[in-house]
Amino acid sequence: MAFRKLLSALSLVAATYAGFVSQGAAPADDMLTLRVALTSNNVAGLTEKLTSLSIPGSSEFRQWLSMEEVKSFIQPSLETTSAFSAFASANGLTPTVISPNCDWVSITLPVSQANELFATQFEVFTHPDMTKTITRTLSVSLPSELVGHVDVIHPTTEFVRPNTRLAPTNLSLDKRTVAASCNSSLPTGVITPTCLQELYGIPTTPATAKGNSLLVTAYEDEFAQTADLAEFLKLLRPDIPSNTTFTLLTLDGGLNTQNPADAGSEASRSGLATGVPIQFLSVGGEDFATSLLDTTTFLDGIEEPPTVMTTSYGDDESSFGSSMAIKICNGYMALGSRGISVMFSSGDGGVRGHHDNASVCDDTTFIPDFPSSCPFITAVGSLQGFAPEKAINFTGGGFSNVFSTAFYQTAAVAGFLETIPSDFPGTFNSSGRGYPDASVQGWNFEVVVGGETALIGGTSASSPTFASVIALINDQLITAGKPVLGFLNPFIYSTGSKAFTDITIGHNSGFVCPASSVAFDAAVGWDPLTGFGSPVFSELLAAALA
Fold this sequence. Notes:
The chain is α/β, with parallel strands linked by helices. It is 26% helix and 21% strand.
């Protein structure tokens, strides 16, 4: 094992920036369980296939793949599995396959052996927001026999912070009579399902098509209360039986406690997709990156997966490291090729990633969010106000430092870049994947939390709203005998682009930063605050049916 190749690395400065502090070397006899991502046999082929499946006008348009067809691209080659098996055997390791596509295995070994095999030094780290320590390292190298066969070893150089929930802001608890529609008594209005239906032309007729469902993922002890959902439906959706509920799925020890003290607002945000079956996936797991991985591998193994998935969590792209971000993103590519529309909130820090401290307001180097920056998901930003709608200051948006401008958005991104003055003081990767892709309202949402009505805001309210729109369009596609929308972005950036109301007002400096802080400004056409803007349901449906 004389020759080694650096697999991943993170500077101490970056780890410290994320809030982690080293407490010294990890004890040599501590046991580590590491996940190893074996190199897929044909990721490039799946990328090419998904491109063909998702571009309007293609002969393969929306002919989504089966579970086994996706596996044929993702599974490692015999050469790769043999190489890793030989490595494991030679070092007394017993690998366990942990993914349906056989591209992830786990190994358990002492710290001393991990240090030797991967030319590294594992350390114990603490974080002020964590009660437990984590064992990580700042670099990992591969022995020569694994070069070309292993993409990621996890957890190693990933320093993903706790509290990755893009938490809605609880503005107030309010027992007043709920408004029937958009309430103008507040400067930006109270957002109810009726308001959203009126604003975007969303139908109230219940969905009836079989094979359509909306999956809401939840991490870090975010719980959906059945009692809150019932109360929400009584107050705001009296046209839906109040005993309508969701199907609970759990993964990695995920829970869904019904203690009112643990209540979240997730249940209330699924009340727009009238008649669409809702699944709530509660994911446990030791860290956010692992939870994201396990969610994708869980869905990889489902014969009939949900048609739409929404997630309201994220962190700085740099916290994951490029290798891990690429591997997770490829997992979403696999889901998109199955016909799943994967949506993520774009982040609540404007151009400043996951940060909500005023100390970052003078920083002119922009921080992209992940998974929002993944080109195989649809990132959803936040708007406020009416006639016209405007980008809210916290809406996450920008350009990836890991992923290049996506094939479907080259013209749109180029158009926006032309609007930026030559003396623009912000630093960002102009050749990166731009996000978000679309936006909807994201402020003053009326919800029920712990039995009380409340007003919340955040892109975590926006992604479920847009996901509901897509789920309702899928219902009509299925009824018409057509395939579901699946991977959305090539459609959104081409024939679907005219089905959005362009948003041209807004500045995403971040919630805690003044408007004078450098950030992007909304512009005509696509921009990295609002994407193409807010959906017009009838026009988006017509484009989808065309």
